[in-house]
Fold each of these.
Amino acid sequence: MDNGPAQNTQLVSDLSKTRIPAFSRLPVKDIIIYIFVMTGIIYVILRGASEQGYHWQWYRVPQYIFSFEDGIFTLGPLLQGLKITLHITWISMILTYLIGLVTALLRLSDSIVGRFVARIYLEVARNTPLIVQLFFVYFVIAPVLGIDRLFAAILALSLFEGAYASEIYRSGIVSLPKGQWEAAHSLGLTGFDTYRKVILPQAIRRVLPPLTSQTISLIKDSSLVSVIAVYEMTMQANALVAETFLTFELYFTIAGIYLVITVFLSQVVALLERRFRVHH
Amino acid sequence: MSEKQLGDYIINVKNISKTFPNGVTALDDFSTNIRRAEVVVVIGPSGSGKSTFLRCLNGLEEIDSGEIIFDGIPLDENKKNRLKIRREMGMVFQAFNLFPHMTVLQNVMLAQQLVRKSSKQVSRAVSMELLEKVGIDDKVDSYPIQLSGGQQQRVAIARALAMKPKVMLFDEATSALDPEMIGEVLDVMKTLAREGMTMICVTHELGFAQEVSDWVIFMDEGRIIEGGTADHFFNNPQEDRTKLFLSQIL
């Protein structure tokens, strides 16, 4: 224990001795491996497609994304669908965070009823398929509440993802040292202020990575709301595939669009993490 | 030894008992009274219930039976009473427990603004004054992780003092510190003692007890074995267990 710092310096000097010569830092080897792997993947895809006798018609795809005629830019069906997808995910994301937080706080509360209700909700939402929940909300709950299919989709998605988010919040909260609660307690902070100023700011920083994963899942899971005929991007693609038989072209295209959105989101969160670095 | 005048009783502890769920009895029919401006040092072997006693005083632990009255307010089920008592007692922990996501200054300002509803300007001024007093005024915008253990503990003392508490509880405040940092924290505590702060200190620092304490309590197995002035306690202990303990640590 006592010679810890000494061992550390030892380690550092060892590392500096075994430093790799400068020229080999060029990632030549990495690039070769990358090209090799990508070639393999593309070969498998093309081979698979050709064995099926698939006839690629990529040139027909752009018109379904957007069109540009007579100087007028028009969104194609896919981007129209993307607008709905973004609309659904944006609202569901906020609701997911809220539902997750409230559920986590209820599970950690002193109230027996609160804990019980939160637990029941969590187990039901987490242990049944999203597609069943979508049907349930749309056919059973929506008529009672008088909500349209778009909001039914948002509600079902938020309830489903909120259950996972609540466990993420809870793990962040209970991971904080007990001393943080005790310090706030001894200063006379109310429970509300303790959560608001001491616990949640630390807990949320800790759970940003898993919360981001959950948000990415939400974006992709939004494609499932096509089952209740909400015309988001996947629904548009389904409809176009039925019409044009451009199966792979269209599905790969929307996969690419989902990828762009989720990578963008990950980058924004990475930026946030750097800005709010945790001081531990 | 000390020239200050002790006041009336501020804390009455009557026959409190506390058994943890694992069956360990931390406090066994424990009673004591503490006067205003009194500095009480609690010593005893580990597991004797010293820390539990402190933690029961401000409600961090629940007592099973007995009664604690602080400045006329009973520490009972009433949430308002509990909050009131917590706000009048400062506590300093072995592990400092500073808020890592806030700067030194924010740590000290937080409770003043939230609990005492002081304005930003006022709580800032009070905090700067206290940080100067504990010798951290040049690091107010640092984060706790950037400070040494001794500095962190001095910030923690300033944070507790910012609430203008009537009593300060020190729970082994120097036990987690490197030896060369113990002195700087004890100096702050001694200054407080001399200024007339009512203090209850669980500590292993017998020099501190001899220098500033008005009363020393020796605890074992959840009871007070012996209590007395530092002079009496260290030079003329009566009980065998006290003598044994002192012989082991002196």
Note: The beta strands of chain B are 9-19, 25-35, 39-43, 65-70, 73-74, 89-92, 167-171, 198-202, 215-220, 223-228.
Amino acid sequence: MTTLTKNKVTDLALGQVPSFNSFQQLRENAQSFLRDKGLPGPKEEEYKFTSISKKLEQSISDFSPANTINLSLDRVKSNIFEGFDGDIIVFNNGHFEAELSRFQAQPYELISLYSSSPENLGKIAKFERDPFVALNSVSFEHGISIKVGRNKKIEKPVLLLFFNQAHKGQVISPRVLIEVEENAEIIFLENSISLDEEPYFCNAVTEIKVAKNAHVHYDRLQNENKKAIIVNNFETDIHRDATFTSVVVSLSGDMLRNNLSLNLLDSGCEGNMYGLYLLDGKTHVDNHTNVDHTKPHAESNELYKGVLADRSRGVFNGKIFVRQDAQKTNAFQQNNNILLSEDATINTKPQLEIWADDVKCSHGCTTGQLDEEALFYLQARGIGKIQAKGLLLYAFAGEVLEHISDKNFRNYLDSLVQERLGSSF
Amino acid sequence: MLTIKNLHASIEGNKILRGINLEVKPGEVHAIMGPNGSGKSTLASVLAGREEYEVTEGEVIFQGKDLLEMAPEDRAREGVFLAFQYPVEIPGVSTTNFLRTAVNQVREYRGLEPLDAVKFLSIMKEKMKLVEIDQKLMSRSLNEGFSGGEKKRNEIFQMAMLEPKLSILDETDSGLDIDALRIVSNGVNKLKSSETATIVVTHYQRLLDYIVPDFVHVLYNGRIVKSGTKDLALELEEKGYDWIKEEVNAASV
């Protein structure tokens, strides 16, 4: 793609931005940054394998912000998985919908970004980090901010449901700020649902502060329609003795880019990142993760696994920074892939920058086919070929699923994964 | 039960089997011996349906059905069992889960009700005694981190669970110490009946002290060049294979 089209996409995106009263300064700064930088072109190292701009140019004709669409309570209910009885926060094309949400007086505070402007918005997910964060910062409308006060343990998980439908394209810009204060605990679950098969561009930003000794779990399912283009910017600041765990399971979509950053800001904190992508058709999923060890005695664990069929494509890029101060760091990273077709592709790249000298860091990646010998062994015991394949792939994928914190959500994803692995793969 | 006629097979263009003929009847134990590279393991693999081998000529009839036409899983469901020379390690799949899937798929094929968890576990416990296998191994990933002896015992344990008609033991004795060999052979002997048959592929006569064969066949250059009783095995133990090679080579000149 030429610079011309790159600018064209940026201009289109910026030209359609509505006027706002709130967050004026943030929006202006993000806008001028975006005008200057533009959306990433093909030569941009960070987006080398995932040319979102080109994809947008091909698929999206309308860059105006998506309005809310008709969404019924029944529709919402039909997307709640079995056994779930926690709070539900509903987004309609990126707009928070209080009427369709369900709250049970759990001790946290939720405010709409429409009516208030929390000071920390944009402080964790800084727009300078990525043009898509900048784009979201310019154009988000009706997001939310969640605050969990000191020492509060939220007993039931909170489910965020994003319903998306944007005819002829259009841009959906969900924005979520979460602040979990000292010693607090909460589990978030997230699912995005396409309401039809038309393309849209969803450019989401989630920023999370995990304060001292707080514990946060965030598990996501990405199972949108085959034309959805998604950029997910997820940034967390993790403070002293706090833990944060992310699980992302990607099953469908046209092109997905997940930017996940863990900033380990103090000693004793721990960040965990798990990912599973099961891809078929021409689905393209790119997981870019970034963990920044800044202080001693912190730990990070990362495991991403992928099964790729048909003409699908996966990208994994895992950056680990260990700064000079961060002695006694433990950082582990692993990316394993199984390619089921000759036309499937994976680009995987670990990127370690270690400035401290007393650390334990390891990384590894493997890419291979399904183990034919193992397959034959199972068949030789009377297990049919399709089931045998499913059994082997499920054993491979299960290692990621077991990190999902909520049992019901895990069972739900487990059944989706088993169904996928037992059939088309 | 099993009739092999003029079986030829090759791998990547190399001819390995060059006309095997063998007849196995219910209740019989056949030992197949021979020097390295004579085609013993190839024969076992071809019977179990390993795809790398191409059958170029001949036929194999198992209980009236064309075995070579069947997928590996259907051969197993019909009652053919191969105890692997090198059992495969499968991380993430527990032995119990794997066996329950296998047993129930075999039962389904044979028109039997699937076993529920309770019934399955009680059968499993009973069969485990047969090969003195440790309960702890059952919940671990299949063969992962098992010792050589544990892997071979696990093979015989699986055989006990699947109740095959024809068992093919591919060098099950290789690498086993005497105690393990005794346990494995005991298991095999207890599973023998007048309706089942066993083919024992081995390098060593030692195994045949425990599993006593009705017939011993010597495989050389892809053919069965000599057949006899268990005395033939003793003779091979004493004299090695050279005299057989010489006989064969002299005959072909």
Note: The first strand of chain B starts at residue 2 and ends at 11.
Amino acid sequence: MTQPYDQNRLPPIPVLNVWLAVPDSNDWHGPFPAIVDSGADLTIVPLGVLSHLAAPYLKRAVLRSQWEERQVVFLHEIDLKIGDLVLPGIDVAGDDISHDLLLGRNALNRLDLRLEDPKLRTHILDG
Amino acid sequence: MAGLAQDVEYEISQIVRSLPAKSVVEVRDFAQFLAYKETTLSRSETALTDWDMQAAAIDQEQRAFESQHNELLKQYSGRYIAMIGGQVVDDDLDRLTLRRRIRQQYDDSPVLITSVEEEPTQTVRVRSPRLVAEVS
């Protein structure tokens, strides 16, 4: 599977279309363009999307930025699909401020991913 | 109303000054949780949904978890636990196995599911600042 970078952002940013579902429901919603963000420990999803899905709550957590800014968030569990790949039981943090979906390392570390920056496209080698 | 808010703000600041550092963090977390609930309410512009209300239930369970953390750490260190009503109802080494078992048993009821680690609250790092405007 190959997907071009989002060139509406400067500099262009790698994105992958993802589908989300309540765990084990197979009721997929999407596609949502998700920013490939290896700096994020966890995948972050806009709260409106999680609310629409009624994604089950897991627990409360604290998000910390590079400069130690803190934000209390709730973690939810979802199934996540990229192409034909299904990643079950992914923890995601709900974001009530931004509309960006960030694909963090808890999802990225399960993918064989190649960023082909000169051609501004992302490859999932097993997808 | 503004006067009342100022009075309360002053009282809270006095109380906070008398608290140990750990408790000050709890006060801040609770205030952030209240702000989160307000945001959710204004977003929906209607009564809170069942899903929104689950946040309050999970928050309550989390407080119970944090208050029992030392004891739970001795018993469940490194394991995943499920908590309802301040009681551990199930545990497992595998998070997906536990979550599936809990969903089958409790359906959509709010259940706190967490790993038991040294720190009671998980910290998630996001190290990805973004350029929003050039600064001259």
Note: The longest helix of chain A spans residues 47-53.
